């Protein structure tokens, strides 16, 4: 890999930053120079004052000049004076007197004013005769650069922040464009579109992204082939296994009708039923686990569904008591009763199976504005705290004290959880002792959204 993207980003960033800050330095310097000059209005005012002072001086009206200067100083809170230039040579040659002409006692009004000095400078306006000048300390209202600090902050802080933000946005969009293509492709792949590919959409991108796209395509091809093969295997397994089981059921039924060894045949019948139940639950769980589909295409009343399930449970377990606490109705939308029904049936049957004879299983429904909670409480021995989540794992079985018979393969609660997840719900278990009740047992709670 030649890291072209790295060098591209390094070149883009370094050249942009260096060029920008060079421009900022140039603009700052020019702005400071321009803002250091007196405005034309201030220049004209100073010139007018110099002309007035010169007029008093030319007419030799010293008293008038003193009075005018006093008024000027008081009105503008400045120092002002009229000064004659006198040069006295102490030693040296007598020629070259022209070198002593034109020296300054103050600053010319066309010169720049230093923006960082705290005191205002003395401005000089020479009279026409050349040996006298009007001097005045620059009034505060004429001091240039009043907005220089604000301008400096804008140029050296605000503009760099804006520029670097824009540069970061450009780099971000440049990098995110191919990444967004990969994100969409990944989402499509997760949704089941195993034919999605991105290499053909990144031909114009940098080599690093093209290599990433090629790697993604290779991964998508391999995983897609594996998932398709797995689906085919599950389908074939389901078809091939159910057929001989059906024939076995028929053969056993025929043998029972001929009154042969009924004990053995009954045992065979029981085992075949267990195998069929195990196979069907396993295949259903595998399908739900692989597809990850949201089964939400209908509306139904949960109370009606529970009434049907509880009637079947009472018939199947006549030695137990099933109490219910249900509202008059509880309609859920965007759900699927074919997923919820078997899940609740598994949980209720599990509660009855693990509760002692004559005990009570309670089924209740609590409804809020947004969801419902279905609780199934048994009176068994409960579950160890560290096993409360494990009981929802496939093929997980408790010890013999909790397991009354051997026809359980640990798929009931695992399948129930996956079915509930497929309609957007959640399920969890807790011991009744956790609620400080006097009765032992397990509480399984299902939460479902109403819509």
TrEMBL record:
Domain HAMP positions:
173-228
EC number assigned by the record: 2.7.13.3
Q: Which domain of life is it from?
A: Bacteria
* Gene Ontology CC entries for this record: plasma membrane
* Ranges of residues in domain Histidine kinase: 236-451
The alphabetical list of record keywords is: ATP-binding, Cell membrane, Kinase, Membrane, Nucleotide-binding, Phosphoprotein, Transferase, Transmembrane, Transmembrane helix
Q: Name one GO molecular function term.
A: ATP binding
- Which SUPFAM superfamilies does the annotation name? ATPase domain of HSP90 chaperone/DNA topoisomerase II/histidine kinase (SSF55874), HAMP domain-like (SSF158472), Homodimeric domain of signal transducing histidine kinase (SSF47384)
The residues that cross the membrane are 5-27, 153-172
Name of one Pfam family that matches: HK_sensor
**Annotated catalysed reactions:** ATP + protein L-histidine = ADP + protein N-phospho-L-histidine
Localisation per UniProt entry = Cell membrane
The protein's topology relative to the membrane is: Multi-pass membrane protein
Principal place of residence: membrane
Q: What is this protein called?
A: histidine kinase
Organism of provenance: Agaribacter marinus
